[in-house]
UniProtKB/TrEMBL annotation:
This is ABC transporter ATP-binding protein. Pfam families: ABC_tran (PF00005). InterPro entries: AAA+_ATPase, ABC_transporter-like_ATP-bd, ABC_transporter-like_CS, ABC_transpr_LolD-like, MacB-like_ATP-bd, P-loop_NTPase. Belongs to the ABC transporter superfamily. It comes from the Bacteria. GO terms for molecular function: ATP binding. The keyword Magnesium does not apply. Keywords: ATP-binding, Nucleotide-binding, Transport. Residues 6-225 form the ABC transporter domain. The keyword Nucleotide-binding applies.
Length: 225
């Protein structure tokens, strides 16, 4: 589709290729995510959801197939070009927040902006705005250990949005939270995604959350159906 922010075409990925224990994870997986579309990716554990997200986010290279982000084909791109695309156009949220424990919530959101070339004042202002948007303005100076699980995940969400990406990739973003907190955090996530017009591919095993997205696709036998 011409307005696709993410395009995956015929993605193949095998681990331990041509060795004992070879595992074919992706076998011609194809998927597109349109501008402003939120797509749920569902599959059993071990079916390859994380691998597909890593390929989509340029964290892993497929054995075959095409990856395009924001209209730019990435096959054959240099490591530097892949890093710049990942840093500027793609935001990641994981099941476990992976916040830097020695830095405050605010600093965890400022740092990726500085790495992307933003000025300190602008980075701080954006971080403060994002924290306010998710209801954590008063927690900006707290380190992750002083935050609840839901608060930590909201900070991780703000960090993913720090560089104003076009594409958000989330791997079970509420999977380690209790049901009530999960619903609350996911609600905040969806509100901000809708307001900003982000495209998102969100892997989840929670069908109630999946039903709140625009479209649900399933990964079966290494293919998206």
């Amino acid at each position: 589709m011409s307005d696709a922010v993410l395009m995956l075409d015929g993605i193949e990925k095998t681990y331990n290729r041509n060795r004992p224990g070879e595992v074919r994870v992706l076998q011609g997986a194809s998927l597109s995510v349109a501008r402003g579309e939120v797509v749920a990716l569902v599959a059993p554990s071990g079916a390859g959801k994380s691998t597909l997200l890593h390929v989509a986010g340029l964290l892993d290279t497929p054995d075959a197939g095409q990856v395009a982000i924001a209209g730019r084909a990435m096959q054959g791109a240099s490591d530097r070009a892949r890093t710049e695309m990942r840093r500027g156009e793609v935001g990641f949220i994981y099941q476990f927040h992976h916040l830097l424990p020695e830095f405050t919530a605010l600093e965890n959101i400022v740092l990726p902006q500085l790495a992307n070339g933003a000025g300190a004042a602008a980075a701080r202002a954006r971080a403060e705005g994002l924290l306010a948007r998710v209801g954590l303005a008063a927690r900006a100076g707290h380190r992750p250990a002083a935050l609840s699980g839901g608060e930590q995940q909201r900070v991780a969400f703000c960090r993913a949005l720090a560089n104003a990406p076009k594409l958000l990739l989330a791997d079970e973003p509420t999977g380690n939270l209790d049901p009530a907190t999960s619903a609350q955090v996911f609600g905040v996530l969806m509100e901000v995604v809708r307001e900003t017009g982000l495209s998102a591919l969100i892997a989840t095993h929670n069908m109630d959350l999946a039903a709140r997205m625009d479209r649900v696709v399933r990964l079966e036998a290494g293919r998206v159906v």
